[in-house]
Design goal:
about 35% strand, 9-stranded mixed β-sheet, about 650 residues, 38 strands, Immunoglobulin-like, about 25% helix, alpha+beta
Length: about 650
């Protein structure tokens, strides 16, 4: 009898659970709503946003067949002073349609990676319409990533139009941000829905899906319902308003205003954790972290990186207006890691990610930086990628330096096992010439290493999608802009630099600034005319190299310093004369090919140096920036011995092969 009663209670409990699954219920909201937010956005910031394209989307995820079924309603408002008789759309998913698309020039789209939007219905103001596919920038008859609809009536300033799509899309194996992770029940869905282009200055800007570049779209309000199998968890842009349990499915409802994109993921094997970041005024931001089970130990590192980023940006740049920030750690087989979306970022970690290397933090901080520069200051990433990538990369280094100090440089064997030291030459992921030890990653060292690979292949000012190859795109979008901002900071000072970036953010948040807007703001907030700086560093593809040719006495207490400009670029620099008791400084505009500067001193002269504060970080050869009156050999000898050791190691290794 004692055994029968517990068994009966258990059967009753299971029966109630099964009955409950057939009823409709709302689970408790997983987030804390406060009266300072509305639709996930600070109320005090709402008046600064002009939503142009509002989206109401319903999605069903079919995990077995790997399909999504979508119904999408768009309301587009003409916020400009110009009229239009057409609407243009991005259809990014069509970039995965075949190996002949523009996108596929960089990525090999084999059958498992292929997909496209299978559009079943299109209505404009309740009337059926047909999409017209065209290529606005690069002619390619196989590319259908941009389309337009000719409207029945002209949309005048202030008017709106309603668009409805029904479509489905096969989820491909993960390739460049979109798709499922092989071997995991993990789906990351980005750039998946028809998205209206940007209508500005009387014309549509709606770029194709280029191989290297990212995106450009208008701000709006998103209401998105996502139906998934009951055991799945969904993370997405914005705040989760509700979760509806219905039979064997769950329906998640997300809302977010003041954003220009929406991404989401679903998985039945992911861990989650929530923490509140509290501002000085007592209001909170919800940090949501979704992490793969094998990386549970990294939760704290991920969340601390987000907290540090929030603290830095709110102190130096401006307020983070959204109620949430969501971090998604993607599986090893996913190509969706290391990317930014409004209120959501993706990251990843290797199984061996030592704390001293700070790789986890570096990726997380960089993607968070994009919440400000891309997410809120929404430049055209196809035309001027540097304006978000360069600023984000620059600020990432600032945050890493302030909160973590200098990282230990490491390299990996077979992209897996981290080794502290410098890898100078490798073959098939096997290091050949290297040196082991603890070497610190100085600010800008990664950017300089990339820049040195191709110092004059393209300029920062070049149109991003027109750069000749991936290396040129990366250098001119990420690393040269970072170096430019480092040089600008060293020239005007750190506090002034933070003030410039804060003013830029405040003026252009929820807007679409261009490079000329940034340059104008810099020039309006500095005392000196800096046109020479941007002409040489931003507009041109120069390389820089200055040299002190000699120092010689030319009279009683008079010394001549002969300086040269060897590179194509010019940079205003100080020239210092070092004596046993003092340092004398003159400024040279750096324009002439050479200059003789006269210094007067009664002290014994030690030597001279051009750009002693390293304001011109683009100088490709610092070793010739200085000249000593009396030669010193020990430094050169030490370097020569080390190089000899590396060469000897390589010869021993090659001699043993065969």
């Amino acid at each position: 009898m004692n055994k029968i009663i517990p068994l009966a209670l258990f059967i009753l409990f299971v029966g109630l659970l099964l009955l409950n699954e057939q009823t409709v219920q709302y689970s408790p909201k997983p987030i804390v709503l406060t009266d300072v937010y509305e639709n996930g956005f600070l109320k005090k910031e709402i008046s600064n946003v002009r939503n142009t394209a509002d989206y109401d989307i319903s999605i069903e995820l079919l995990t077995d067949s790997k399909y999504i079924i979508v119904s999408e309603d768009i309301t587009w408002i003409n916020r400009t002073e110009y009229s239009t008789n057409e609407i243009q759309f991005h259809l990014y998913a069509n970039g995965y349609k075949s190996n002949k698309t523009l996108f596929a020039q960089q990525f090999n789209v084999t059958p498992e990676y292929k997909t496209e939007l299978e559009i079943e219905k299109l209505l404009v103001d309740d009337k059926e319409k047909e999409l017209i596919y065209f290529q606005p920038e690069v002619e390619n008859p196989h590319d259908s990533t941009v389309s337009k609809v000719i409207l029945s009536k002209t949309i005048e300033p202030g008017d709106s139009v309603k668009i409805h799509f029904d479509y489905k899309m096969k989820i491909p194996r993960s390739i460049k941000r979109l798709g499922y992770a092989a071997g995991r029940n993990f789906f990351f869905i980005s750039q998946w829905f028809p998205k209206v282009g940007v209508f500005e200055e009387g014309r549509w800007v709606c770029s194709q899906y280029h191989p290297y570049t990212n995106f450009y779209s208008d701000f709006g309000e998103y209401t998105v319902k996502i139906k998934v199998p009951k055991e799945y968890v969904v993370a997405a842009t914005g705040i989760q308003h509700d979760k509806l349990e219905e039979g064997e499915s769950s329906i998640y409802l997300f809302k977010q205003t003041g954003v220009h994109d929406f991404a989401w993921c679903a998985s039945d094997e992911i861990l989650s954790r929530q923490e509140i970041y509290t501002r000085n005024d007592g209001t909170g931001i919800l940090i949501q972290a979704y992490v793969q089970p094998e990386r549970e130990k990294f939760f704290e590192r991920y969340i601390n990186a987000v907290k540090n980023s929030l603290e830095f940006f709110e102190r130096n740049i401006g307020v983070y207006p959204y109620q949430t920030i969501t971090l998604v750690d993607v599986p090893r087989t996913s190509a969706s890691g290391g990317m930014e979306y409004p209120t959501l970022l993706t990251t990843h970690a290797d199984l061996f990610s030592p704390d001293e290397a700070k790789d986890i933090e570096m990726v997380t901080v960089h993607e968070f930086a994009h919440q400000y520069f891309y997410g809120m200051v929404a430049n055209n990433e196809v035309y001027e990628a540097w304006l978000d990538e360069g600023i984000a990369t620059y600020l990432t280094e600032k945050i890493m330096q302030e909160y973590y100090g200098e990282r230990n440089i490491s390299f990996r064997i077979a992209k897996y096992f981290p080794i502290y030291g410098l890898n100078l030459l490798s073959y098939n992921e096997i290091p050949l010439i290297y040196t082991l030890g603890i070497f610190k990653d100085k600010e800008g060292s990664q950017a300089l290493a990339a820049f040195y690979r191709s110092p004059s292949l393209g300029a920062i000012a070049d149109t991003s999608y027109q750069l000749p190859n991936l290396l040129s795109y990366v250098i001119n979008s990420y690393y040269k802009p970072q170096l430019m901002l480092m040089s600008l900071e060293r020239y005007v000072g750190y506090d002034k630099m933070m003030n410039i970036l804060s003013r830029f953010f405040e003026k252009y948040k929820y807007r679409h600034p261009k490079s000329k807007d940034f340059i104008r703001l810099v020039e309006n907030n500095t005392e000196e005319d800096l046109s020479w700086f941007f002409d040489n560093v931003f507009e041109k593809q120069y390389y820089f190299d200055y040299r002190v040719n000699y120092v010689q006495q030319v009279g009683d207490n008079e010394y001549e310093v002969f300086v040269e400009r060897l590179g194509g670029g010019s940079f205003k620099s100080d020239v210092a004369l070092y004596t046993e008791n003092d340092t004398l400084v003159q400024t040279w505009d750096g324009i002439e090919r050479w200059k003789k500067l006269i210094f007067k001193t009664a002290d014994e002269v030690i030597g001279a140096e051009i750009d002693p504060d390293r304001q011109n970080v683009f100088d490709i050869n610092y070793s010739n920036n200085s000249y000593t009156v009396e030669s010193r050999y020990w430094a050169s000898l030490s370097l020569a011995i080390r190089v000899f050791f590396w060469i000897q190691s390589a010869l021993l290794l090659f001699g043993s092969i065969g």
